[in-house]
Design a protein that fits this description.
The chain has a 6-stranded mixed sheet with strand order 10-9-8-13-11-12, sandwiched between helices. The chain has a 4-stranded parallel sheet with strand order 2-1-6-7, with helices on both faces. A 3-stranded antiparallel sheet has the order 4-3-5, with helices on one face. The protein starts with a strand and ends with a helix. The chain is an alpha/beta fold. 43% of the residues lie in helices and 24% in strands. The radius of gyration is 19 Å and the shape is globular. It folds into 2 domains: 3-156, 3-Layer(aba) Sandwich (Rossmann fold), CATH 3.40.50; 158-291, Hypothetical Protein Tm841, Chain: A,domain 3, CATH 3.30.1180. Residues 175-183 have low confidence and may be disordered. It contains 12 helices and 13 strands.
Length: 295
């Protein structure tokens, strides 16, 4: 019986991590002009962002359904494996609720199946980084009880700082009001978005100009990050690789972070941010008990 750590595609875990640890990633549904697609399986960022920027086709996303989760979980139950699923925030989507209902259904048929579902209260690389951290701990010999404990700790202490180039997609998704949308567009206002204690997205600041927004995201990391020299931080982008490289250079040269887990925002998250997005995640507390397995 294996102890399997799994996640979903809204975690934006980089392909390098998926391949290195043979990570099981459940795809998030995406519809384009009513065609059902699966993030990272039948639709990929390069094609997705081209479609999005053309602005002709209607794009929608919805969380993984209970039935879809039942199909995924049953594979592990049949194999006799135990599962730790690190899940998208309940403050953003209904993923956790659907997964919990699926768990109960699967347990009726496989009562010995063991699965722990963690509401990460994180988004994108926020819980992607949590997933990568516990996978590394597992590879380095950490027992499963400590892995579950560490995953919860990392989620509790994960800070998100996100900048977007345009308010168009946030406005379309109801994240900002019309007044902010119109004024923001005229004044080149860029919102800084963070996660609150409930795992909901909140625009906490407004910065004029994209370069200032990028610098502000880094400043937040410097202000709130704990012992950054010991941390691997997460960094994601939509299509602006050069902006991600700019931020990474500051993180390494000025903040002296231990490492950077960099990847691209996938279709599930990109549908709501647009291609012009930079997201940075890091921890506001460090526990040496877990970092023994991360060296």
């Amino acid at each position: 019986m294996a102890f399997c750590i799994i996640t979903d595609s809204a975690s934006d875990v980089p392909r390098s991590v998926i391949d290195k640890y043979d990570l099981y990633v459940m795809p998030t549904p995406v519809t384009i002009d009513n065609e059902d697609l699966r993030d990272g399986v039948t639709i990929f960022p390069e094609e997705f962002y081209k479609i999005q920027e053309e602005g002709i086709k209607e794009i929608k996303t919805y969380h993984i359904s209970q039935l879809m989760f039942e199909e995924h979980f049953t594979k592990f139950a049949k194999a006799g494996d135990e599962v730790l699923y690190i899940c998208f925030s309940t403050g953003v989507a209904g993923t956790y609720q659907a997964a919990s209902l699926a768990k109960e259904t699967v347990l009726k048929k496989y009562p010995d199946f063991k699965i722990t579902i963690i509401d990460s209260r994180c988004a994108s690389i926020g819980y992607g980084l949590v997933t990568e951290r516990v996978l590394k701990m597992q590879k380095n010999g950490a027992p499963k009880e400590l892995l579950i404990e560490a995953a919860k700790y990392f989620c509790d202490h994960m800070i998100h700082a996100v900048a977007v180039q345009t308010l168009d997609y946030l406005y379309a998704g109801g994240r900002v009001g019309r007044a902010s949308f119109v004024v923001g567009g005229m004044l080149d206002i860029k919102p800084i978005i963070m996660m609150d204690e409930n795992g909901s997205l909140k625009a906490t600041e407004k910065v004029r100009g994209w370069k200032k927004a990028l610098n502000r995201v880094v400043d937040i990391c410097e202000e709130q990050g704990a012992e950054l020299s010991k941390q691997t931080v997460g960094l994601v982008y939509g299509t602006t690789v050069e902006d991600a490289n700019y931020v990474e250079e500051i993180l390494r040269d000025k903040l002296k972070v231990d490492g950077v887990l960099k990847g691209q925002v996938g279709c599930a998250i990109g549908a709501h941010t647009g291609p012009g997005v930079i997201g940075l995640v890091f921890q506001d507390a460090i526990n040496e008990k877990y970092y023994e397995y991360l060296r």
